[in-house]
């Protein structure tokens, strides 16, 4: 019997396709990704190719579709709205909020223009007193 691959899902980018491939393989279903490199390197071809395709063997179609439907949708955890209570690096509770004068610079201007970011986006800077790790939380 020939193992024919069929497309069970398409994605706008390779990252989401890789995540779903990992979910299928965790269920014991071999999965393959088609057009990953083409769409990643030449995103303007997305419409021509129909996106990044997730494929499985024809005999695994039903199991794969059930596994995909049972999986949780993609989500992004929101940024914390309060003062972080521990360092994300060493998990120490010795965290302080550091403030600095927010002077516009050429680098921040370029970043804002290139990422279509509002220049007035509030940014909070934190430092861990235990390990010295520094991080930024954008509100």
Automatic annotation (TrEMBL):
Residue stretches making up the DUF2007 domain: 6-70
Pfam families assigned to the protein according to its UniProt record, in alphabetical order: DUF2007 (PF09413)
Protein name per UniProt: DUF2007 domain-containing protein
Source species of the chain: Adhaeribacter pallidiroseus
